[in-house]
Amino acid sequence: MARSRTVFSLSFVAVIALVALVAGVVTGRATGSGGPARGGGGVGNAAGTRIDVIIKASDSSFWQVMVAGANNAAADFGIEVSTFGPTSETNIDEQVQLVENSVSRGVDGLVLAANSSSALNSAIDRARQAGVKVITVDSRVTTATEGFIGTDNVKAGAQAGRRMCELLTAANRTTGAILIESSVAGIQSLTDRDAGFRQGLAEKCPRVDATQQRYNNNDINTAAAQVNDALTANRELLGVFADNNTSGVGAARAVKDNAAADRVPVVAFDSDPQENAALADGSIDALVVQNPYFFGYQGVLAAAMAAAGRIPPADIDPGAVVADQRNRTEPAVRALLEPPAEETGG
């Protein structure tokens, strides 16, 4: 895809090398059985390779984009992919059960966007002991896997912090407090984003206090209420950083309801139709956009490599892009803001 040359921090050559390796793997497996190579894109059939993809939540368009990437990889390389997800990112027990179900079905590989850095460790360990190759995406876990694909959230958070500083500096408002509106406590990717945001903000806006933080349990209404309360309690609140799409939608709603968009900048993570609309109408000033399509597509390829006995890259960072009013209609940025998406199945 053309946009990969623009937005991925991993070298394009390395990505092509991984795709080429998987192409060789699936073609070799298909022709090794003595039959003709079959499958999507003329690459060959993976000869029964079965990969399960478990996202963080089925109630989020962000994760449906990852599903679209996984299913397109399946079509392109003839890999058998099934996709699953708990109803919410807070349903960790449900996600553990989904991992256990994959092991019981005897799949060859698993692509997992874990809802906890540690709570799924035992299930992951059991999967690998059963011969299932595990690739984690988006959030790291604290046990061994075959590889990780995800944004360097500290670095991406720092991009958000720097943009917030730019917005505050342009308004000559660099002394005071901002609110960090977060989704769920204890999620490593979010913790890293928040830490990176504070680092990036402090580089040139050291007098901005970013210690105030609220957790909305991944609920838009709660996020909107928390931001509304913060705006009411402190009429001089400088800005809001929202560290995922749910938080971003809630923050935008509260800022709009308080007619504060012209004085309280909002910098948020990710994209979905509601966030994109808020970016267009000015209730969100900037979005730090990841590439969940890449998580799904490349995750399936990496799992297929591992299942075939090859060694996938240990760590791939597709990077993040800051989208705003100036660049949101550019083709490479628009492709990230409006990627393909589809519902999960089972």
From TrEMBL:
It comes from the Bacteria. It is found in: Cell envelope. Its main location: other. It holds the Pfam family Peripla_BP_4. One of its GO terms (molecular function) is carbohydrate binding. GO terms for cellular component: outer membrane-bounded periplasmic space. Residues 51-310 form the Periplasmic binding protein domain. PANTHER family: ABC TRANSPORTER PERIPLASMIC-BINDING PROTEIN YPHF (PTHR30036:SF7), D-XYLOSE-BINDING PERIPLASMIC PROTEIN (PTHR30036). Belongs to the bacterial solute-binding protein 2 family. This is Ribose transport system substrate-binding protein.
